[in-house]
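Q: Please design a sequence for this.
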């Protein structure tokens, strides 16, 4: 495999080391290397790399630039909210802080080109300089002339410089209608299940054998692959649940070779974790950074149960519970559940026999805000005044996608919501506030 990464300008040993760090991306790395050429050779003015999230775009580029020790600047278009920051970052990385300080207060593109050329005449490029633009799709929202200029920066500054754009979006959606220089395009396809297995299995745990870890990854992918193919997300899940997987081994109940027993032990946990794949306080990107910082004390990834990890404010929990009840109970039953002295409701009337279909099978129904609040005030014991904070908590729940707002934008005065969480989830939330939700659900009477 490593044979794909070959170039007469680099030692074979070094390229092999690079290839080892780029499993399943040898083809793309090989193409890139041949476009980039040797360090002293002139390279293509701009390269456009696209592929879905976590398809290894940044990983491959940085591994190549770092391991081959090529001069480069990395700019995140998310961080650079203005072109001034972007220019500063590039000059700083390529020429040092003196060059960056030459930029005027709100620099134009021509200021940047002028300073670049000036610096370049002092220190002409011995090796190709690379400028990597992360999340390049954001460049489309910046100055209209910025993207066309970056694509042909090589010509503008007359330097051996290559701009590499990394994006999740295809080039067709970038091309300005006024036309521009066409970059060289390179696609990073999604990883297949087998490739994910191969990459994830590399993270094996120091105190367990590589085979055990590999079979663990196999189980993990068996459960999660249908809902999540994001390498970052999967890696996070793998680390999170590994200690649970090893529990029977540590207790000495099971031998490493008995994968079936291990599978039986971990499967329910993984299924549970599945409900909250994307639901947690730290995103997988942040988690990755934390991991890197904590690399010293390896192994001890704090096991966080997926449910326990959704920390909501006290009243938000009740709001969510009320929303769940409003979504799954028919409105006519509210009186029976939530009015203390509701008078006599004849049981036969209340439980209509022909209503066989479970509301849970039908899915959540939309409800208006006043019904939500009515249920909320009834389930929350202590009296709370309807304050702005209750409303802002509702909108936070919508932002967290625990509630979904339905209906049209023109119904500003009468918004309707749906509860978007599962029964297991709401039961876990209810337990934390000692509320027995099952007693209040019409389906379970
Ligand atoms: N082939 C691979 N081998 C090992 N690790 C990989 C590989 N591809 C990706 N990764 C790891 O997966 C994570 C995500 O990859 P990367 O940041 O390169 O994705 P990306 O394509 O740049 O995604 P985004 O579009 O979100 O920026 C990184 O931690 C990276 O180290
Ligand atoms: Mg990236």
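A: Design:
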């Amino acid at each position: 495999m490593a044979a794909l990464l070959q170039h007469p300008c680099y030692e074979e040993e070094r390229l092999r080391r690079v290839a080892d760090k780029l499993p399943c991306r040898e083809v793309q790395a090989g193409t890139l290397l041949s476009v980039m050429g040797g360090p002293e050779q002139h390279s293509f003015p701009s390269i456009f790399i696209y592929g879905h999230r976590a398809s290894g775009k940044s990983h491959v580029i940085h591994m190549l630039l770092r391991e081959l020790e090529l001069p480069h600047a990395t700019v995140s278009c998310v961080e650079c909210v203005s072109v001034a920051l972007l220019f500063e970052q590039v000059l700083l990385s390529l020429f040092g802080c003196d060059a960056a300080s030459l930029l005027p207060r709100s620099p134009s593109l021509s200021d940047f080109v002028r300073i670049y050329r000036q610096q370049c005449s002092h220190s002409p490029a011995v090796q190709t300089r690379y400028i990597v633009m992360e999340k390049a799709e954001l460049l489309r929202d910046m100055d209209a002339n910025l993207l066309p200029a970056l694509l042909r920066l090589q010509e503008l500054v007359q330097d051996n410089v290559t701009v590499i754009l990394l994006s999740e979006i295809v080039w067709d959606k970038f091309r300005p209608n006024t036309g521009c220089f066409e970059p060289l395009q390179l696609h990073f396809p999604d990883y297949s299940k087998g490739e994910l297995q191969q990459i994830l299995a590399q993270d094996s745990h120091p105190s367990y054998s590589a085979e055990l870890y590999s079979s663990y990854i196999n189980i993990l992918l068996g459960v999660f692959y249908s809902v999540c193919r994001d390498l970052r997300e999967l890696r996070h899940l793998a680390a999170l649940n590994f200690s649970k997987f090893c529990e029977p081994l540590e207790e000495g109940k099971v031998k490493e070779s008995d994968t079936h027993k291990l599978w039986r032990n971990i499967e329910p946990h993984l299924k549970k974790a599945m409900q909250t794949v994307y639901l947690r306080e730290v995103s997988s990107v942040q988690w990755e950074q934390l991991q890197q910082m904590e690399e010293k004390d390896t192994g001890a990834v704090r096991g966080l149960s997926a449910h326990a990890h959704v920390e909501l404010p006290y009243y938000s929990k009740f709001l969510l519970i009320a929303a769940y009840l409003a979504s799954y109970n028919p409105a006519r039953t509210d009186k029976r559940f939530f009015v203390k002295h509701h008078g006599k409701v004849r049981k036969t009337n209340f439980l209509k026999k022909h209503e066989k279909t479970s509301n849970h099978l039908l899915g959540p129904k939309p409800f208006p805000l006043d019904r939500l609040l009515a249920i909320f005030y009834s389930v929350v014991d202590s009296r709370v005044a309807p304050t702005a904070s209750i409303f802002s908590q509702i909108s936070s729940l919508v932002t967290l996608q625990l509630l979904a707002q339905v209906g049209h934008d023109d119904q500003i005065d009468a918004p309707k919501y749906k509860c978007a969480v599962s029964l297991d989830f709401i039961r876990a939330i209810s337990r934390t506030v000692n509320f027995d939700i099952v007693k209040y659900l019409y389906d379970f009477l």
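Q: Thanks. Anything notable?
A: The longest strand covers residues 161-167. The radius of gyration is 28 Å.
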